[in-house]
Amino acid sequence: MPEFQSNINDVTKARTVPRSIELTSQTLGEMCLGYLAENPTQLAEFMGLTGYSPNGLRKVAGTPELDSGLIDYFAQNEPLLLALCANNNFRPDDFMRVWAKLNPSG
Fold first, then answer.
1. Is residue 2 part of a domain?
2. Alpha-carbon dihedral 69, 54, 82, 105, rounded to 10 degrees
3. How many domains does the chain have?
4. Can you give the pTM of this predicted structure?
5. Beta partners for 19?
6. What are phi and psi of 23, to 5 degrees?
């Protein structure tokens, strides 16, 4: 029985430790939009700041411009960024590497 318990603990630890992964701006943009879609208050705030209507947002979904805007929005909102990373089990450093590629001058 102790060996079985040890294996369960190892699996649990592996799932709770954020992993380092290679993200693309497209993948990250999709994750950001998905997170906002699940959080209507945050989605409304994003749409209010950007001026997107629901139809306008649907039209630009999946474009590099929207992906970049979403990544900027999350990068400027630390609690939102941390929630996205925790929900998708990756490190904030991985997110910020993508942001840095999109914004080489910082």
1. no
2. 10
3. 1
4. 0.79
5. 90
6. -110, 145
CB 80 within 8 A of CB 74: yes
The domain of 33 spans: 24-102
Q: Does residue 102 contact residue 25 with C-beta atoms inside 8 Å? A: yes
Structure tokens at 99: 């942001």
Give the CA dihedral 68, 30, 61, 36, nearest 10 degrees: -90
In a domain, 92, yes or no: yes
For residue 13, being part of any structural domain is answered with: no
Q: How many CA atoms lie within 13 A of 54 on its CB side?
A: 2
Q: At what angle do helices 78-88 and 25-38 cross, to 10 degrees?
A: 100
Q: Could you read off the pLDDT of 41-63 as tens digits, one per residue?
A: 999 999 999 999 999 999 999 99
